[in-house]
Write a structure and sequence with these properties.
Shape: globular
Helix content: 10-25%
Distance between the termini: 35 Å
Oligomer: single chain
Order of helices and strands: HEEEEEEHH
Amino acid sequence: MSIVLADPNVACPLEIARFEREGTGGGPLEVGDELRVRLPGAWNGPVRVTDVTDHSFRLATLRGHMEAGEIEFRSRDAEDRELVFEIESWARSGDRLFDLLYDRLGVARELQLDMWAFFLERVAQISGGSAANGIEVYTGRCTDHPL
């Protein structure tokens, strides 16, 4: 986790996404840091670091992001002495256009799935291992907050 906290780009598919820190801050991510997730096209998403521990960090979307929500990256030791790295995202589309691309057409959903799968596989490599049991994806839907 310390490697990812120092530079989340070490695990990013840079042709799809890149984290850029706003301002002049350097060093590992800290609560309050603001980043812009650079994506192809007009989908650059601002986020703020809202929590950091030795084993996790959480980002919240800011105004202008294509989604509204939070994402947490965390590591833990499993009972079998293996390392588990998880990405948990709770979000909804930030506007009707992204809702169309994500929920209706599925284009953005597939791109996002590929991006985070790459991130997880890269973290496994950085840790000196591999995604031994593959990558598991769970998706739930909450319809309480429509656009």
